[in-house]
Amino acid sequence: MKNEKKCVIFIIDGLGDRPNEQGKTPLMDAKTPTMDKIAKEGICGLMNAIDIGIRPGSDTAHLSILGYDPYKVYTGRGPLEAFGVGLDLKEGDVAFRCNFATVDENFVVLDRRAGRISPEEAEQLEKVIDGMEIDGVKIIFKSSKGYRGVLVLRGEGLSCKVSDGDPHEEGVKVNEIKPLDDSKEAKRTAEILNKLLKIVYEKLNNHPINEERRKKGLPPANIILPRGAGVVSKIEKFYDKYKMKGACICGTGLIKGIAKMVGLDPIEVEGATGTPNTNFMGKAKALVDALKKYDFVLVNVKGADEASHDGNYDLKKEVLEKIDNMLSYVFEHISREDVYFVLTGDHSTPIEMKDHSADPIPIVIWGKSVRVDDVENFNEFSCAKGGLHWIKGEHIMKILLDLTGRNEKFGA
Amino acid sequence: MKNEKKCVIFIIDGLGDRPNEQGKTPLMDAKTPTMDKIAKEGICGLMNAIDIGIRPGSDTAHLSILGYDPYKVYTGRGPLEAFGVGLDLKEGDVAFRCNFATVDENFVVLDRRAGRISPEEAEQLEKVIDGMEIDGVKIIFKSSKGYRGVLVLRGEGLSCKVSDGDPHEEGVKVNEIKPLDDSKEAKRTAEILNKLLKIVYEKLNNHPINEERRKKGLPPANIILPRGAGVVSKIEKFYDKYKMKGACICGTGLIKGIAKMVGLDPIEVEGATGTPNTNFMGKAKALVDALKKYDFVLVNVKGADEASHDGNYDLKKEVLEKIDNMLSYVFEHISREDVYFVLTGDHSTPIEMKDHSADPIPIVIWGKSVRVDDVENFNEFSCAKGGLHWIKGEHIMKILLDLTGRNEKFGA
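Above: the input entities. Below: the structure tokens describing the complete assembly.
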């Protein structure tokens, strides 16, 4: 019999917080009747995406929640960005995030974003770099959103243990890329990158696009600055791992990268920006729609995290209320008979810290036959008393597989 | 910006207990208003220093609480004692605890403590042993508190997999030291030790100090009995690991050894004896003082454990009340803005067992922005309902790093 049970993991990015002087968190303060209803009808607890005391990025947290060990599959931002822009990567590819930048003849960085060149200009310059070959290594380059881009090295004997070319500031020279360990692979990779940057400068500096920019008094995009090296690791695709057809609804490139990396279909929603002004209801409708076609949907709503990074308590509260409204639509359209719904976050982003912390996040699992506990509100304090106690991100998919009858019995 | 947040881990040695016939533990029975206040203002839980069901020593428990894996860095008591007496040890040194003892001409042990010889006598005898060389191995020996001492072998091809020379009883012969595995290193180490014991006997038996003792009718200290072999392992120093300048306040040699091993500065307190009669208030004042100079202070108060080992319920209760008084002084002098304070134990020492057990220990973390829970009393039962749920010793430092903004983010 085909398993018809669907699963949703709904991630409110940066959800958790620490109490303020009045002992309140934005989640406690916000009016979130739908979240509270879900908590009341589900089984609650606290969750650390990776482990107690570990302060995760959104990327490593999402990997862990999807059941992938970030210590094994996460080697740096590069591969995620490369997956995010839609490159078809292979195991062993070494990928970097890049900026187009402006340097003078001594390679001193004058503008780290090359005057924010347009996507159209970037696409022209991309063609100059993409497809080159250096020492038997294929160079793949793709621009994204104008001055940003992704560089991939494909070939034998490469390593991601190399330093950034990007000096991360202006007025200083481009970093010479150095091997970060004693391997010959790291040495070779650094050499290839240093050669590449020289060739890129020679090819771009007098490129017609840049001559045109100079005429307009704009800084030329005459170099690329690689950073965040990572190697593409072997990763079992989501469907192969769980036998569920999966999709992802999110506005941010980082999470899109994760989704593509593990093989979740991206669902584009108009106006989904990954900011507090995202198209909340568009995403809610997309989720309800996706559940008709997919067994599993990962949703990430980023706005609360953005508000936290800005230290904006009121905005975080407001975003949480908008998300509650969005959930209200979703819960009008799903049934406990068909859907298991996990509502949680990827990490805490306390207002006082303006950055991620290791504080655990509230979680509720809602659906048929879960062991409903006494928790009546969805927040950091009430969920601590829930029936799930404390779990790790890696447990979530396992619990969902179990609830939906998809996991294998170990033993007789 | 310099991180000014301080951290204290305050260990009540042997804190936890099992309920008596009336369902009470000494901690429940004792009047501990300050501990209860800390619990009320902090986040509580239960903690196992190593893991559920693991019955730790004070040494392995403290290592784990400080974030060191005892399964990797703890190889035996010898190295701890050697660090404790202030020896400058090197990775690979093999260290033993020793007693000066009295043997007859057939090496039968007549007195395992050589009539408790004085520190002055021991220092004279120490000079005979210290500095010898056997088969290319340097012999280092240091006496401590009279009949006790530490023996260190330094050289190539040594192992700590050797049996004790100490027979742990009188009226029997000194044990021949045997290799405990098939390695040539263990064989070589055992041979060197057996040679050493013969040489020590020859050198000490007619030493003027012993001739003098015989004249007074006292047993001569004519042998040393090594036990508790351990190899000194590579250990990342506390400052390098956490970037916090750390100190330790404790009365017992074992914990002093741990402190020196990981690189915490020892703070000497007059009258700190590691017994129920220790100078409680002296330690409290030393802690308040240390917080002016250090980022991190580990405090160990041993008395409750001593009382437990004696099966003395009332004394344990009394010690806990004295510690509460000590904490009252401390909490008059620290502020939630500056200090994160962890109050816990290293292990349970149930009165009924007169020894360490694996029962978890109450823990509370107090400081700015912790998620205060409903717990109003500090004991084994109330803390089980706290917001921390259950954690391991290894999590404590990670949580403190996170609360004080010192940990690295993993990912983006």
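Note for the figure: The two ends of chain B are 22 Å apart (CA to CA).
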